[in-house]
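Exercise: predict the fold of this chain.
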Amino acid sequence: MRQKNKLNKNNLSLILSWIKHKIKFNLNRFQNSLNGPTIFCINFLLFFTLCPNGQASTLDQVIQSELLHSNIIRAQENQARLAEGDRWRHFLMKEPNLQFSSSDSHNEVSYGVGGSFAFPGKTFAYMGWDRFKAQAEKNEILAKKMDLAKIITAYYLDCASQTLLVDLQKNAVSDLETLHKSLTVMYVSGHASQAERISTELQVRQSQAELRSTEDRAQAFCKQWERFHQENFPADPFENKLKDGIPEDLSEETIALLGNKTADESRAQTQYEQAQMTDQLRWWTIAPDINWSFSRNHYMSLAGSPTGELWTSSFSVSVTLPIFFPFQEAVDVRRIHAQATMDQHSAEIQKRMAQHDKREASLEFQRNKLRLKELHDKDLNLAEALAVSTFSAYKIGKLGFAELMMARKTLTELKTQEIQLKVATIQARLRCLTQCQVE
C-alpha cells in the first residue's frame, strides 16, 4: 500500500510538472506583446510555480524545459517553417538584372532588364523535392531534441552516479574503520591475529585512496552539470541539485516529446529518401534555364539609328542546346544515378544498424529492469543480512576472516551494480524510446 501511494504521488507530480511547462510555454509566446512590469510579474510567478520551496529541477523537468525552450530547437523549427514555403517560392522568377550600355561616340544609349526562369515543367517536377525537404526539416527537429536530451542526461548521470558512489564508498570506509577498531581490540585480547588486523588496516587505506579519487571525479562532473544548470536555469537555486538521485526511468511526457525514432534512425531515413529523390530528378537536373532580356535603345541622331527612329526596343530569348548530349549531359545523368544508388545503399545500412541498436537497447532495458527488481526485492536485503550475520559469526569464531571480508565485498559490489544499472537503464531508454518494453 505504501509503494502504491508513492507511485500515485510520483504520477501526480509528473502531471503537475507537465501542466506547469505547458503554462510557461504558452505564456512565453505572448511575452513580446506585453510591457515590462507585466513580464516581470509573469516571470516572478513562474519561478515560484516551477521551483517550489527553491528545489532544483529533476532530470525530467530539465529535459522537458530545454526541449520546449532551446534556441537550437527554435532555430530548427524556423527552418522547417521556411522549408514549407519553398514549395511556392520556386514558382517565382529569379532576381532580374538591370543593364545599361553606351559607346565612346555617345551616339547610342541602351537601358534594359534581363533574367532567367526554369525550363517548363522543371518547377512542377521539383515540388516533390520541396515536400521532401520540408518533411526532412521536421524530422530533424526530433533528431536535435534527441541529441540535446542525450547531452543533458550525460551531464546529469555523470554527476549523480559519482555522487552516489562517493556516499557508498564513504559508508564502506566507515565500516572498514569500525571493523579495524574491533579487530584491534580482539587482537589485544587474543581473539584475532595480527595478519587480520594488518589486512584491515591496508584495506582502509586503499578504500580511502579510492574515495579521494571518486570525490575528484564527482567534483569535476558536478561542476560541469552545475555550469549547464546555471546557464539554462539562472533563477533556479542549485543547492539541492541531485535531490532525487538517479531516476528509475524517464517520464511518459519526456518520451512523448522525444518521439518514437532515434536521431540515427531518423537521419538515416532522411538520407535514404534524399537519395531516392535525387535519382528520380536526375534528368531534370540537366534541363537548361531559359534566359531573356528586354532593352530600350536611344539614338542621339537619326543617322545612327538602323530603323530611322530615335527610340527602339530589343527583346531576346536564349537557351542552351544539348548538342553534345551523349558526351556531357548523358554522362552527368549516369553519374548522378550511380551516386544515388550508392547513397541509398549506405543509408539502408545505417538505417538497419540504427534499428538493430534500438532492438539491442530494448533488450538491455528489459534486462536492467528485471535485474534492478531482483536487487531491490532479494539480493540487497540478503547481502545486508549476510554482512551482519557473518560479522556476528566471526566474533564468536564460527567463521573466518576471509568469509567476513567476502560478505562485505559482496554488499558493496551489489550496491555499485545498482547504481550502474540505473545509469544504463536511462541510457538504454534514450536509445529505444517507446520500443522499450518490460516483459
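Check your answer against the key: Strands lie at 97-102, 108-117, 290-299, 311-319.
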